[in-house]
What does this fold into?
Amino acid sequence: MRVASDGRCAGLLLLAAMASFPATAQGVVGTEREPSAFTARSAPWHALDSGEVWAIAFSPDGKRLATASHVGGAPGELRVYDAGARKLLARVGLTKVIRSLAYAPDGKILAAAEFADTVTLRNPDTGAVETTLAGHIGDVNGVAFTTDGKRLVSISADKTAKLWDVATAAEIRTFRGHGGPILCLSVTADGKTLATGGGDTTVKLWDVETGALRKSFRGGESPVTAVGFSPDGKVLIVGAQGGRVSFWDGATGAPRANLPNANRQLRSLAFAPDGSFAASGGLGGRIALWDPLAGKEIASWPAHTANVPALAFSPDGKVIASGSFDQTVKLWDARTHEQLAVLQQAGSEAGDQAVVLAVAYSPDGKTLAEAGEGGQVRLVDRASGQVSATLKGHADVVTSLAFSPDSATLASGGYDRTIALWNVASRQQRARLAGHKSWVFALAFSPDGKSLASAGYAQELLIWDVAAGAIRARLEGHEGSVRAVAWSPDGKRLASAGADRRVRLWDPAKAIQTAAFEGHAGEIRGLAFSTDGRTMASGDDDGVIKLWDVAKGAERATLYGHGETIGSVAFSPGGTRLASGGWDGTVRLWDTATGRELATLRGHTDGVSTLAFAPDGRQIATASFDRAVTLWDAAAPVLAPSRTLTDLNGEVWTVAFAPDGQSMLWGGRSNQLFRNALPTGPTKSFNLSAGATTTIVFAPDGRTFATGEWDRTVKLFDAETKALVATFKGHTDAIRDVAFSPDGKTLASAGYDKRVKLWDKATGRALAGPPEQALAVEKVLFTPDGKTLIFSTGDWAAYRTPGTVVLWDIATASRRGELKGHQSRVAALALSPDGKTLASGVSNAIRLFDVGAQSLLAEIPHEHDSVLALAFSPDGRSLASGYFRGAVVVWDVTTRRPAAYLNGHSALVSAVAFAPDGKTLASCGSQDKTLRLWTLSPSGEAPARGGR
It folds into this structure.
């Protein structure tokens, strides 16, 4: 998955705290592997690395507008605009990602919260750094000035808020009490009360002068991502990640009103200067206006095509500025909601197709079509993955695509109210169908290819004669926009659904409605027939999927899991599986017979807009608001964990099997280590560590083990008695990794101090080692002959900064070579048991190197986001990988194809390790606080599964 910039606040903020550790298509019925998972294959031609807008702020006089963007998680630009003239005044390249901006009340300082542990005070005209406030030990997520401008409040992933003296840059006090990263803040106009919301789901009200906690309450069942005081301080609005919006008394913290199913996924919040209403931005690009006294939504509109993490009112309250992941800043009339201006961000160019809203496979399986913003349709050769043609003809966003059954014609429709018919072979437009009164949302060819159904915004459902290019029928009955349309496989039924929350069946020959299925509470956006025509699936804005018995007109099952808008549903060619794409950024795979969820596929960093199965069922394509199309491989089985350990007293960062395979050790954020006798023995804890343990490794003989510690030390323990044998001191920052030499006589340690140190195990004496590196050292290991030390580097605060892999000759204390070409931080390394192959993990691929030749053997591209953990099986035939967003994949090293998808973790996987016999794999979920064990075959591959 292309990484880890989950702008939906909580996900990336949790990364900031811990990342350093660790579409509907029909086709022929075919044989299916059951159950299956989809392991993504990179589709790099579909991604635009343009500036996603994360922060925005008006100057107090309203004359300037400051914005900050980033590019795929890496620092982007800080820009300052003339808000009136809509002109760019200054642009500054950033070295750190900025999460929040705030002008001082006098407009003379621009404060920036950085995804590092600092706050910068900048020149408001040029954006240049003038002062740095250092004191947090985690990424800073927000800043706000007090009314007098003399003090500044900052919040951090380190679970604290800090009050600063702006003039002296001195820290005044620290607010402690949150159990997780603090994600949002607001200060009352009188500067006396601070509200903070956090990943622990609580909102806390603080006395700014004394630091005392006045009130603490639950803001929802999910992390609190937005808080905002009204100008008079009487009302506090709280937005939670799960969609809940609530209103509270600003002084007492007593509840005033609650909207439990707002379905907005708030990510930004701003009050109008007069306090009469508030604006919020959320997932999917909508902006909503709220009445804070009545506690209700008064208006909303689709402002962007992606997440809106930044909002600001002009000082006079007449303009709302919104920043989005769709690369734009937009200015809106706060009264009429009319768009006033669009300010393109870094990397954007006119004509860029920023967001993909439609994908379709040709029935012959040779071509994948995609389209979205920019009005262009791109044809991608499925075999080569290359764009074979770009079809230009639409004047606005393209929302829908459909191939004719013979693959000869492609239909495209969109916001320009027209439908284009393209000759796929010649790449020429053969017809333009005009007849819709408003936007076209969905298209579907009849099975015989003679008719085309189109659905649109203005309650429109049309059937076209393809040959004549004329409207054959207008089907009337919908009471709102029509979002989805699908033909039954025999062509005798047409299904449609949309804003009126009903699925309607039509006789297309007679142009009459024959049935209506009711049961959805939200607008329906996804609709599909199974290949035998007996079952229909529909998905709505509440994240609910329903399966219908078409003949009986009855509901067969209701599927829950997404919790947010379902963008698309599609049946596999055999009909035994259903794929659903949601605005929660996941793709879910369901067993249509039982309704059981088979797998959750995480990879997109924003909502999934549409998806499609390939006609042979071996691949699925997904498109997302994150501007990426991902191709998922359907060949690997899904495995559930054979054992899950959950009561682990905190985040789990590292795990190691004893060489005899009889036990394993693990540790993490707590000051304890844990031991478990395998396979089902009890867990025992040991207070061996004074703080967080970042890594554990056994000596080759199993008699001792070493730990790397957050307190900058390496500790050596007796494996049997757990007694501390030695402590090695010398690093000046936290230890990232430790390794034993093959003979067990030498220890190597790597740290965030950019150093690799070698230690004589017996004496504790420091040996000659590599010099200080340019970046932090992430991983370290010895070759099997003990002659070479291999280590990797990277910048964990800016993972896109290219890292290196260095080969160090121990005997001569000199550099033997360097494995180049990495495009990001190298957070994971693994060496095959024979020492011939090295695997490195970066943001978009696993790279395999020939160690002897120091050359690249192959890349295993993926879309599972950052690789944080790698491990070879004992026989070297398999490679396990763990990813930021929770995926664990076992790869066949020979074929470089997925051998198994391990479905269980919900967030960052910090470590993976094979048992000595290769039959078991352990994985650490540092944020879901679990250690999971997976049963594999002796070779480390998934057990063979029979297909259907």
Q: What stands out?
A: Residues 204 and 216 are 4 Å apart (CA to CA). The helical segments are 10-18. The radius of gyration is 28 Å. Confidence is low (pLDDT under 50) at residues 1-50, 260-264, 344-353, 942-948.
